[in-house]
Design goal:
With 220 residues, the protein is an alpha/beta fold. Helices cover 53% and strands 13% of the residues. The chain contains eight helices and five strands, in the order βαβααβααβααβα. Bound molecules: thymidine-5'-diphosphate.
């Protein structure tokens, strides 16, 4: 039974959605409630981009909002920085923690790369969403469940108006395209994705989110 050696005992839950969809607030609530519901397992809350070396470079770049359209080389470099950050996260946190049986809740993961860089690399390669999925496929750890926080991009931008700093991806046309990419990713793997109505308040969103996670744990 050669495949058995690859079986990991933990669970990987990822949260995806456009900027302003309320993922990060929900992630904290979800992780807290999950830990209460399953005290026998360690629940780890994490996020991408990470605080590692590639993540730090990315965060510095993301906060420099304005300026002219970045070159193809710059956009490509950004894709590979997100991938390097993801590889680092897999190696240092995701794979070892899953092997120890933890439940990981990740605020963004590889689907964000397909959805966001799938927009920035349009016109550079023929189908960037699919291309990015293919680059990830041989080495990525597929999430056990992905919660997709759905919110009208106009509403998401309104929610972000109160934030002091704007990041470069926070423009409506851009977020509409990211939203389309997320919908496409969900349609490609309907069993993995659970759609969350992110227009409700944080408590309701956390309640909605917990259901598919608990179902997953019960089935295992
Ligand atoms: P994040 O810190 O999650 O921002 P927020 O809390 O505002 O959602 O992510 C920062 C930005 O990075 C966000 O606009 C999404 C983008 N991003 C990508 O473009 N590609 C990726 O692979 C990831 C993980 C994030």
């Amino acid at each position: 039974m050669p495949f058995l050696q690859y079986r990991v005992n933990g669970f990987l839950i990822t949260l995806e959605g456009i900027d302003g969809s309320g993922k990060s607030t929900a992630a904290r609530l979800i992780a807290k409630r999950l830990q209460e519901a399953v005290p026998q397992r360690r629940v780890i809350l994490t996020a991408e981009p990470t605080g590692g070396q590639a993540g730090k470079i990315l965060k510095a770049q993301l906060s420099s909002s304005g300026g002219s359209e970045p070159s193809v080389a710059t956009r490509m470099a950004e894709l590979f920085l997100f991938m390097a950050d993801h590889a680092d996260q897999l190696e240092k946190l995701v794979n070892p923690s899953l092997q120890e049986g933890a439940i990981i809740v990740s605020d963004r993961y590889a689907d964000s790369t397909a959805a966001y860089q799938g927009v920035t690399l349009r016109g550079v390669v023929p189908d960037p969403v699919q291309w990015i999925r293919e680059i990830y496929s041989p080495w990525n750890r597929r999430p056990d469940k992905t919660l997709l926080f759905m919110l009208d991009p106009a509403l998401a931008l309104q929610r972000m108006q109160s934030r002091p700093e704007r990041e470069k991806f926070e423009r409506q046309e851009f977020l509409c395209e990211v939203d389309q990419n997320f919908r496409r990713l969900a349609a490609l793997e309907p069993g993995r994705f659970a759609i969350i109505d992110a227009s409700q308040d944080a408590e309701d969103v956390a309640d909605q989110s917990l259901k598919p996670i608990l179902e997953l744990l019960e089935q295992a």
